[in-house]
Amino acid sequence: MDRSEQEIEIEMTFNELIFVDDHITLLARLDLGDDPDADVMSLRGVGATASVSTPQDFILKVSAALDDLASLEPEQRATAVTTVTVRFDDLLVLREMAQSSARIGADLVGMTLKLKVARAIKELISKADSDDENDLD
Fold first, then answer.
1. Distance between CA atoms of 24 and 128, rounded to whole angstroms?
2. For 66, what's the count of Cα atoms within 13 Å in the CB-facing half-sphere?
């Protein structure tokens, strides 16, 4: 299996999801000609307002997870988590935005995301290596 197709579940808090949602922008494909690489652009400028461009499916996953937790009372949101199924490529997007100094209030969302992503990447790589070894048997 291609590494980009591997999936893993990670738990995310409301503040982590808010942080991610604030830092992604849609990576859109436009029909501008014969060169498919020239047809890709971010809908919001990558910089101060968004740090990473991402495909629509990742934005939909984040939005759905955020909606799951947004329906809770504010005091419940502080401790609630939801499970998000992400692909290896999604983990790389999360890794790019997870600055260890990023905070929402007192919550170190950047550091917690960075650690969750590192753990998930390590798990997927380990699983892929194990699968490769089993294929050789």
1. 28
2. 14
As a whole number of angstroms, the distance between CA 38 and CA 40 comes to 6
- Tally of CB atoms within 10 A around 86: 23
Return the closest-CA partner of residue 94 out of 129, 68, 71, 119.
Answer: 119
Asked if 41 and 25 touch (Cβ cutoff 8 Å), the reply is no
Which amino acid, 14? Answer: F
DSSP 58-107: HHHHHHHHHHHHHTS-HHHHTT-EEEEEEEHHHHHHHHHH--TT--BTTB
Look up the pTM and report it: 0.80
| pLDDT digits 0-9 by tens, 95-130 | 988 889 999 999 999 999 999 999 999 999 998 888
Lookup result for tokens 């919550």? 107
Residue with tokens 């905070």: 103
Count other C-beta atoms under 10 Å from residue 53's C-beta. 19
